[in-house]
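Hey,
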Amino acid sequence: MPEDPCGGWHPPGRPPSSLGHEHEGGGGTPAAADARQPLGIRDRAMLELLYATGLRVSELVHLLVNDLNLEVGYLRTTGKGAKERIVPLGKAPFRH
C-alpha cells in the first residue's frame, strides 16, 4: 500500500470535562431545572435517581409509583430483555 489510509485523519477534540456557565439554562440541561417549580423538582429527582442507582433512562421513564418501596429502600424495574430487577436506593435521592 503506497499511501497511509489514515494520513489525513485527525482525532476529534476532547469533550469538556464539565459544562461551564455558558451552557447553563440551555433548555434541558440540569441547570435549567428550577427547584422551586414542580417540574424542576421532578427533573432534579430524576437526575439524582439516575445518578444514584445507575438506572437506564428507559427504565426511569417507565417507573410507576407502585415500583418504589421507600420504606425498605428499593425499586423494581423491568430492563433489557423484559428482565425484572431490584435496585437498591441509597439516601442520596431522598435528601431533600
